[in-house]
Amino acid sequence: MTYKEKLLLIRQAMNNDGVYAYIIPSSDPHMSEYLPDRFKCLEFACGFTGSAGTLVITAKEANLWTDARYFVQATEQLERTGYKLMALHAQGVPEYIQWLSGNMEHGASVAFDGKLVSFQLAELIKTELNGLNANIVSDKDYLEAIWINRPALPQKPAYLIDELIAGENVIDKLIKVRAFLKNMRADYHLISSLDDLAWLFNIRGSDVKCNPVTLAFALISHDKAIIFIELSKIKEEDRSYLSDSGVSISSYNDIYTVVKSIASGSIFIDPKRTCFELVQQINASVKVIQGTNPTTNLKAIKNLVEIENTRKTMIKDGVALTRFFKWLEEAVNSGQLTEISVAKILLGFREEQAGFVGESFDTISAYREHGALPHYKATTQSSTELKPEGLFLLDSGGQYIGGTTDVTRVISLGNATDEEKTDYTLVLKGMIEGCSAIFPKGTRGYQIDAITRKPIWDQARNYGHGTGHGVGYFLNVHEGPHVFNTAAIPVDIEPGMITSIEPGIYRPGKYGIRIENLVLSVKDQINEFGEFYAFEALTLAVIDTGLVMSALLEQRHIDWLNQYNQQVVEKLSGYLDSEELKWLTNKARPI
Amino acid sequence: MTYKEKLLLIRQAMNNDGVYAYIIPSSDPHMSEYLPDRFKCLEFACGFTGSAGTLVITAKEANLWTDARYFVQATEQLERTGYKLMALHAQGVPEYIQWLSGNMEHGASVAFDGKLVSFQLAELIKTELNGLNANIVSDKDYLEAIWINRPALPQKPAYLIDELIAGENVIDKLIKVRAFLKNMRADYHLISSLDDLAWLFNIRGSDVKCNPVTLAFALISHDKAIIFIELSKIKEEDRSYLSDSGVSISSYNDIYTVVKSIASGSIFIDPKRTCFELVQQINASVKVIQGTNPTTNLKAIKNLVEIENTRKTMIKDGVALTRFFKWLEEAVNSGQLTEISVAKILLGFREEQAGFVGESFDTISAYREHGALPHYKATTQSSTELKPEGLFLLDSGGQYIGGTTDVTRVISLGNATDEEKTDYTLVLKGMIEGCSAIFPKGTRGYQIDAITRKPIWDQARNYGHGTGHGVGYFLNVHEGPHVFNTAAIPVDIEPGMITSIEPGIYRPGKYGIRIENLVLSVKDQINEFGEFYAFEALTLAVIDTGLVMSALLEQRHIDWLNQYNQQVVEKLSGYLDSEELKWLTNKARPI
Fold first, then answer.
1. pLDDT band at B505 (very low <50, low <70, confident <90, very high)
2. Cβ contacts of A433 on chain B, cutoff 8 Å
C-alpha cells in the first residue's frame, strides 16, 4: 500500500466518525522516544523515520511537524506521500495545536489514540481548543485496521543487573521513592516510562532498539510494588530476587484494570510520562497528584558506583574510537569504504570491549553533505563512498553494562577549505566554552546552552538543535529532566548529572560539523559568592587539531584542548598497543 | 508607635479573625513597583524601604521575604522590629507560599488585602495551599485601623503628551488594542497597570515618585474607552482631546461598580497586572480571558519617534554626567562632599537640561562599602564623606519629556587596589559581552543574562540581581515584559526594545561595582542561519579606563571599550564647552 493509499483510508475512517483532524504522535504507551516496531506509526503512515514528529491529518491537509534536525530528511522522505513538512520553531513544542486552532471550525472533532498521547499533551490540546468548543476523541487508532502484519509487542527477555553495577539495590531505591510519595501525600505511584522503571528495579531488556529497557508498567504503594510485564520475560531467579525486595509481578495488560480498581486515596503521576488513556482509568474518587516522577530526578543524579563505572566505560569506548580513527585514516586511501561499511567497522571495535551490549543509538556516519543532516542515518541507497577529501562526521555511542556513551567527532579526509576550518574552530570554541564553564548552583541548562552558542553567534552562525541532553547509565542515551537547550526549562543542573555538550554548524549541501563530549557535573568551589559547579569531561576521544584555526581561539581554549587531548592519551595509554599509542600521541600533540 | 507595637496590633486583629497568616505584599491596586505613600505598607509595618518584599506574619513569626539586592539593607532596617529576614533565592518568586505550606495546619486561614495582590498571585496561593484546605481571606487590610494619618491617594495633575513626543496618537493605539481584543474574542479589556494606561492614552502624571504616571484604571470595549481617574486631575483641554479620540472620563472609584455591572460577554485581563479584588467583581456570567496586556507588549517596542527622542535624551543625560564627573574629580580633593551632597549636584546638572522632569529612581550614590548594597539609598544618617580614595558607585537616571535614562558608573577616588581593578575589569568584560552580543531572533533575556555573567562566573564570582530590565519611554524605569535575568521567562527579545545591561560584583564591607548601559535591540543581519539581532548602545557616558586591567580582557573587549568611549566624545562634543570636552577627550583616550 502506498502512503497515499494509507492516507485515503485514514481519511475515510475520519470521515465516517465525523473527525476533523487526526493527530498521530511519535510515541508509545510509555511515552518513549525510541519506539518498538509496533509503534513506528509515522514511518508506517508517511515513511518518515526521524525520532521526533507529529502528523496532523485533515480532509484537506496532511502535515508532518518536526524540528530542524530533520528538515532535510523529512523533505526527502515526504516526497510524493501526500504529506507536507511543517517546520517546528522549537523542538518538542506542539505548535500544531496553534495551527489547529487557527484552521478548525467551532465544535469540530479532534481525534488521537490516547495511548500515544501523554496526559499533559492531551490536557494542553483540550485547553487550547477549549475556546473553539472542540470535541476531543481520545480512543481512535485508525492505523490498526489498515496496518497489515503490524508487529506484535516485543517479547525479549528482561534481566536484573547486579548491585555492584547499579550501585544501589531495589529496596533502598523503593525507600527513597516512598519517602517522596509520603511527602507528596500520595498513596500510589504509577510509572509508565521505561527508563524510570528500569532504574528503579535494576532491570534491563532489549524490547527497544538501542535502549536497554523492557516494556512494563509499575504501581507502587506504601506496602506493595508491582511490575506489570509479560510474565515469560522474567527468569525465575530474577523473580525471586524481586520478590525478596518486596516486588511482585503481574501481566503487562493488567495495569489498566488494576489502576481502575483503586477506589480511594491519592495517586502520583507524571503528566509528561504517562499516557492519557491510563490516566482516564483513574476513578474520580482518587485524587491525582501531578509532578515529575521521583525516579526521573533520582536517576539523573548518578551514584558513585555509576560514576566510577562510567569513567571505566569511557576508556573502553575511547579505545574503540582510537582504533577506528587510526584504521580509517589508513584505509581511506584504499577506497571501497562507505558510510555504512565504516560504521560496521566501528561497531566491531566496540564489540571487542568487555561489557558492550549494543549501540546506544543508530550511528550517524555522515560524509560531506550528509553531515549537514544532524540525525542522518545512512541507508543502502544513500550510503556514499568515502574519498580522501572532505569532512566526515561520526556521531555514535555504545551501551555497556557499566554505562552509556555518545560522542561526535569530525575529521577531514583531505583538502580542508578555510570555511570548513573556520566552522570547525567555532564549533570547537563553543564546545570548549560549555565544557569549561564554571557556574553557580542553581544554573539551568538554558544558561549553559547560551554560553556554548556564544562564539558561534558571534559570527552570525547557529545550529537548530539543543546543545545537550541528559544521558542514562546503561540506559537511554536521552534522559531527563535536565537538558541544555534554548527553552525556558527550569531544571537546575545538579552534581552527578551526565549531559552531552554538542554544538554544531551545518552547511546544507556541503558538510556538517558537530563536536560532542559527555560531561559530569561536579562541585567546584564554595566562596563568598556562593557554591560553584563545573564539568568533568567523561568522553575520552582525541579531538582532531588539524582543522583548528588557532587565531580564532583564545589561549584558554588552546590550553583546554591540549590538556584534554593529553588526558585522552594518559587514560587510554594502558589499553593500546604501541602502534595505536604512537598514532594517538601524534594526534594529541599540543598546538 | 514602634514596629513591635504595630505588629502586636496586627496579631490581635488576626487573632480576632482566626487568621493564621497575614501576607503584606509591596504593591498597590495597580500592581506597581514604585508606590504612592499611601501604599508603603512594608515601610509602615517594619521600616523596610526596599522596592520589593513581602511580609508574612503569624502568631509566632514575622518574616520579610526579599532578594539579594536588599539583604544588607533589610538586615539593618529589621533590627529590633520583631521581623526576621528570609532570603529569597530568586527575585520576585513567592517562596513564602512554600514556607506557609510547610508550617501551617490543615484548614487554617491565610489573609491579605485583595487590592494589593495580583490575580495571578492570589490564584497561586490558593492552588498551592489547596492540599491543606486553606481558607483564603482576601479582604483584610489590618494596617488601615492602626495607620494614624495614613496618606490619602495622591491627587497630582495629569497631562497629555504631544503626538510629536509620543510618536503615535491615542486613536491609532486604540485601534491596535481593539484588533488584539478581537483576535482574542474579548469584548472588554480592563487595564490597571499605570504605565500601560499612560502609554495607551499618552497621559502622564506625578502621583508616584520617579514614575511619571497617574493613578487610574481603564476599561476598553470595541466602541468605548473610559479612564477612571480623579476628575479634578485632568485639564479641560486634555479632556476634550481625549473625547475627540473617543475616550471618556469617570471617577477613579467607579471602576469597581462598572466592572461589576458588566453582565455578559468576555473580558481580557492581565493576571499579573490586575489586582485580585477587581477580578472578584467580574460576574460569573462574563468569560475571563487572561494574558499579558496588549499595551505591555506594544509599549515595549519603541516607535521611531520614541527611539530618535531617546537618542537625543541620552545626549542630554550624557552631558549632565560628564559635567558631574568632571566636577567630582576636581572637587573631591577639597573635602566636604558627601553621598547626598554630590547626588544633589548631579540633579542640578540634569535640571539644566531641557525637558528634564525629575529623577527616574532614587539616585544610588554609594561610596566604598555602601556600593556593596545594590539598591543603597543614602540617608542623612548613612551619608558618608567622600575622600580621595576608594571606589564610588553612581547609579542614577532622569525622566525627560523625550525619554527615560538609567546609568551606572564606578570610579576610583584614589589608591585603587588590585582586587578593585580585577573586579572592575571582570564586570566591564561581562557588560561588554552582553552589549556586543549578536543573537538569533527568538533569543530570550535569560540567554543574554548568561552571556553577560560568563566572564564573572569564570572567576567564581557572581551577582545576586538580574542583568537588566526593560526601560520605558518617559515612563517607568522598570517595565516588562522583557527582562534579562536567570529566570525561565519565555519572552523573546524584539527589535525596538530598550533594556539595561548592568552586571556587578559586590564585596560586603568593602565596595560594590556595577557598570550599566541602556541598549536598544536592533536588527543586525539575515543569512543562511536565520535572522540575527544586536544591541545599539544608547547611554552616552564615558567608561573610566583607569581601573581596567587590560590583561584580563581580550582585544575585542578593548576595541569595544575604545570605540564606545570615542562615540561618547563624538556625540557629546557639540554640547560641551572646551574645558569639558578636553576633560572628556582625555578620559576617553584609547587604552
1. very high
2. 454
Mutate to test the interface with B, among A419, A454, A522, A552 (most CBs of B within 10 A): A454
> Distance, in angstroms, between A430 CA and closest chain B CA?
12
Q: Cell numbers at residue B286, please?
A: 462574563
Distances (CA, A) of A96 to A64, A103, A109, A279: 9, 10, 15, 23
Q: Order across the sheet with A398-400: list the strands.
A: A356-359, A398-400, A403-404
Q: Mapped to the 3 state alphabet, what secondary structure does B201-265 carry?
A: CCEECCCECCECCCCCEEEEECCCEEEECCHHHCCHHHHHHHHHCCEEEECCCHHHHHHHHCCCC
CA dist B428 and B421 (Å) reads 10
CB atoms A460 and B524 under 8 Å: yes
- Whether chain B has a CB inside 8 Å of the CB on A433: the answer is yes
Strands (E), B390-461: 391-396, 398-400, 403-404, 407-412, 439-440
Over residues B15-23, mean pLDDT: 97
Distance CA A53, CA A44 (A): 13
Beta bridge partners of A506: A512
Q: How far apart are CA A16 and CA A140, in angstroms?
A: 12
For chain A, what's the residue count? 591
Q: Distance between CA atoms of B219 and B267, rounded to whole angstroms?
A: 10
Q: What is the ipTM of this complex?
A: 0.92
Q: What are phi and psi of B550, to 5 degrees?
A: -55, -30
What Cα–Cα distance (Å) separates residue B256 from each residue in A492, B218, B281, B282?
43, 11, 7, 9
Burial of A562 (C-beta count, 10 Å sphere; 0-12/13-18/19+): middle
Mutation for testing the A interface, residue in B289, B419, B457 having most A CBs under 10 Å: B457
Q: pLDDT confidence of B381, banded at 50, 70, 90?
A: confident
Percent of chain B with pLDDT over 70: 100
At position A153, the amino acid (one-letter code) is L
Q: Is A287 on the interface with B (CB under 8 A)?
A: no
Closest CA to A479 of A62, A84, A181, A199: A199
A447 touches chain B (CB under 8 A): yes
At which residue does the C-alpha cell 522549537 appear?
A90
The DSSP output letter for A175 is H
Mutate to test the interface with B, among A439, A449, A467, A505 (most CBs of B within 10 A): A439
Q: Is A524 on the interface with B (CB under 8 A)?
A: yes
Question: Degrees (nearest 5) of the Cα angle B93, B96, B100?
Answer: 145
Residues of A in contact with B461 (CB under 8 A): 529
* Residue B444 contacts A where some CB pair is shorter than 8 Å: yes
How many residues are listed for chain B in this entry? Answer: 591
Residue of A114, A208, A219 lying closest to A153 (CA atoms)? A208
What is the pLDDT at residue B517?
A: 98
Cα-based distances in Å from B230 to A48, B153, B499: 64, 10, 33
Helix axes A578-587, A555-572, angle to 10 degrees: 170
Instruction: Tell whether B493 is within 8 A of chain A (Cβ).
Output: no
Mean pLDDT of B168-180: 98
Give dist(CA A478, CA A463) in Å, integer.
Answer: 19
Residue A190 CA, chain-centre distance (Å), reads 22
